[in-house]
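User: For a benchmark we're assembling, each entry needs the component sequences followed by a predicted structure for the full assembly. Here are entry 17's components. Please fill in the structure.
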Amino acid sequence: MRTLTDLSRPVPRPEPATQADDTPTLPRQAPPHDSATLHVTGRARYLDDQPAPANALHVAVGLSRVAHGRLTRLGLDAARRAPGVVDVITVVDIPGHTDVGPVFPGDPLLADAEVRYAGQPLFAVAATDFTSARRAVALAEIEIDALPARLDPVAAAEAEEWVRPPHVQQRGDWQRALDDAPHRLEAHQFVGGQEHFYLEGQACLALPNEDDGVTVHTSSQHPSEVQKLVAEVLAIPFHAVTVEVRRMGGGFGGKETQAAPWACLAALLARRTGRAVRLRLPRGDDMRATGKRHPFHNRYRLGFDDADVLQGGDITVIGDCGHSPDLSEAIVDRAMFHADNAYSLGQARVTGIPARTHMPSNTAFRGFGGPQGMMIIERAMDDIARHLGEDPLTIRKRNLYRPEHDVTHYGQRVEQIGLLHELVSQLEASSDYWARRSAIRAYNASSPVLKKGLALTPVKFGISFTAKHLNQAGALLHVYTDGSVMINHGGTEMGQGLHTKVGQVVARELGLENAAVRISATRTDKVPNTSPTAASSGADLNGMAARNAAMQIRERLFDFAAEHYRLDREAMCLENGELVAGHGEGERRIAWGDLVQAAYLGRVSLSVTGFYATPLIHYDRASGQGRPFYYYAYGAAVSEVVVDTLSGEHRVSRVDILHDVGDSLNPAIDLGQIEGGFIQGMGWLTSEELKWDETGRLTSDGPATYKIPTIGDTPPDFRVALLEGHPNSQASLYRSKAVGEPPFMLAISVWSALRDALASLADYRLSPALDTPATPERVLFAAQALRQATATETSHA
Amino acid sequence: MIEFYLNGEAQRCASLAPETSVLELLRTVLQRTGTKEGCASGDCGACTVAIGMPDQAGGLRYHSTNACITPAHQLQGCHLVTVEGLARGDALHPVQAAMVDCHASQCGFCTPGIVMSLFTLHEGRREGRRDALAPLDDARLEATLGGNLCRCTGYRPIRDAARRLDRYPDVRPPWADDAALADNVAALSDELESDGYAMPRTLAALHDVRRQRPRARLVAGATDLWLETTQRLEAFEDVIDISRVAELQAIDETPDGWWIGASVAYTRLEPLLETAYPAFARMLQRLGSAQIRNRGTLGGNIANASPIGDTPPVLLALGARLALEGPDGARELPLEAFFLDYKRTALAPGEFIRAIFLPRPAGDRRLEVWKLSKRREDDISAVLGAFAWQEQAGRLHGVRLAFGGMAATPRRAEAAEAALEGQPPDAAAFDAARQALARDFQPLDDVRGSAAYRQLAAANLLERLRLTLTHHSPREVCLDAYAH
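Assistant: Structure for entry 17:
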């Protein structure tokens, strides 16, 4: 039996990503996305592309325009009489559960008496076409007695308006460490939310079955939860509901819990009418009705010594959870778990407060609170550096987790510290940080308006669901008699290349070409009780389950072959489409297809389920201590920006990234995750601004007003590399590491570089406040504040 | 009845509502679902398709457009190409092959739109078109793809795919084998028989139809009007499409300047502006996206009378005039007299803009145009400043400072102009002008910027102007100039 490590054949590395104006080169032997050809030819089917029976109905949902109030009248007669309308439902038409809260209750499928956010679904209309349904929605007479809306999460936190109780993680005597420290600083910051802006909006198609059941096609990261909620809403057993997800046109967390309500509405209307029902949200409704990345208000009080090394302190993070718990407890927890990022806080207390407001229920989004938590300590690193006149990189390096300072505030020992230091040093050198630092100082000294900034920020991101039970996965593997292999697993494909990676795993274990293995849609009747595809865990968990299935079938075939062909069982392997037994003159090779056919005739089962559960992890909420993460993924980025201090406009001119994916499963896919995550993070921190009016209505409700990055925002000089030679220290899938979320936070380097450029206005002696997103407006006001502070200083001097 | 070709096949569609979009026609009537809806507002590019129109050389000239806000009736006499129409069986089109090889799709939902934007670029290069032949540098790719949002990749692999296009064998779409296609498309009627949607070909015909249908909505590029149906679900009972009125499509040169027909699309203006007013041309690259610039018109941007339209401030600074026509005859009007109040214009009932007069640049006149927006590409201005002046004997003359985003209409800053007129371009004069700006405007708070930001940023644009007038190169004081 070979060991895990032996099996992790080295995968050829890609050349570093392209540099400015160079002709690009391609990573070698990294199979493309398994749907790539379907994508580029328009043949890949998304939810709304699926053919449906000709009599299918289309649904539009009526949303509240009031953030908080009592629903006193819902006049739907005109909507019912409108052309094409077949059915109209409100909360009283729901036979089963009316609450679709995923973990804790609090999410009414349709509003009852109380309206809790602008955008909340009140009723749904099914009509013969989409436009008729939408026009009928507009005919509803809605009367809501408005009540005061709570829109400020800080005020909510002070009033103890929480969706869940606050949580504390504490290690050592933080108060004493703070009191005894020679230097103390404190600051607060606002970190804005983020709209997912998956290109494919929320969508589903529900088909009534011949019995009491329903088959639901949905664009969801969590088919098992959709199955559960649809069954509960319809008051039927889980086995009467089958949920299928072929692919999503983007998810990013926005379809982890918040795809389910639409599936429930469509399923209910399908059961009531006996017809197929399509539901897709127009972009504006999608943006108004669904939750976003949590905005956070963070605060730190930290003490440090004369060498700028943290001694301890106190950090508070307040998450704006919106009106219901959804996943907010775990999200605020993750913000707390990452309030240290890659630095030893010393003796520290971290408090998380999940504040309740009259907003859509904010939800999972790539990083899951981690990015918002990291922002506070990265702000502190810059502030400390300015306070003592050091370069922020020097301070960051000095405070990294290190021997004897390797335990987090929640009690987990940080492994691979050597990797972290090596990664930062390598990037420091390869990005030419110090030479560029000097050049930028010189440029800024003589440039009247444009100022450049530079920053290196690291990432340490914990991998595992912090809800322990979710760290499991299943797979179903069939070998057909022509030798082709079908693998199903519980993970969903949202563009991240999960199916490609899992297919590679099975092909590798069975010694087959990738094309011999196919992955079909994720279905709850193939693999049951699955976890969401989230927490970057898709490949880690489902790849392991698939590998487990493949290893079982391999062992079964080896047993069969040993007996049937009278071969030496010990020396068998599968490679290049053959079973190989024996060595040298005694070697026998049997084609995979022949082996499978013989096994079938020999009445050997060619179907198997696989399973995996992550070992070692635990976390005790009562004490706030444990080992919530199986391992950490690391990375670092250096960003250089140019700021126009008269307009606040800015551009990212160069980015260098070095990222740790352990031994990469697919370098091309991993690079894609790193680059895409970085740009998405950059959008979050710079141009993507959520705006509400004073009554709590979203005003940035479409791409005309909510600006995600475009191709021109991609740095002209973008150098991305995978860290070489550091397999995962834990026994993960071929010693690879998760890659979905960690790179997102590399973009904090852009924000820090903006602060660096601004700091030049005050000769790097002041640390500018810069809430996010750092729009031109915020950057201009920050520049203005620094200029005024400097002028005041000068006049006092 | 609309007659057109779709991926080389003749199509006849009857009884479409006037507000039907190309996207709706494709997805719900023709069941071609390769083209995606991402926003239905012309902002994300997922629905990008290529429309080929007969050109004077007897071929078909393709441009990209957002199918979601392109009226289906505008397909009359065109060749519509969608993502389904590029590959030859298993042989991918170069654009598609490059995208696969570069790992340029992840979730794939934006991919059909990106493929079609790159397809129009590729076709343009095959035909040797001036605008397409420029090197495939970052600026060219941004101009082509700035209106195609991708949420997954971060664009680097898409950029790489675009740069590799020339390396692939020139696999042509199957319909390219049909030598008669361009002739067949050109042979389709240029008359549209359709209830509720008129598409006159001459000014005289436009006057006729306007007289018969006085309540009809006028549409040219539809880049704004169509949002009323996709976002607000309006049903248009009666539409008059002016996009093919020959006189409105003309650019007439006179000794003093150019009369630009009201339905000339922005893209067609580019060559003229690059020569006459490079600062205007540069700003135009940031107006909407390629898809929008291919359809949107100067006439629409003015008639729409939005306070944040990008071209009106420039035209105000340049002293543009309008030629209006209506039931009571024709008249000319300075552009300044056209904007009365928020979305209210001097157009009399039944009147429309025939042409816009762009004065020829005088030797010593200078123009700067600076647009400020949250995102550089495909974003609407928070503030747009357009400044024209000449310097004589060290003093500023003929100062015209026009702003968008600062008031209910695009407007000149008269007090600030007065503060600069006849003054040397020194700090004192510009201080006075910046202070005067606070008297000129009381801007609004909205989603694109606070009143305080607009006021400060507008004043700072005057400071930028001062710096450019006094020994600083634009590269030193303006980020856009630095970066390009």
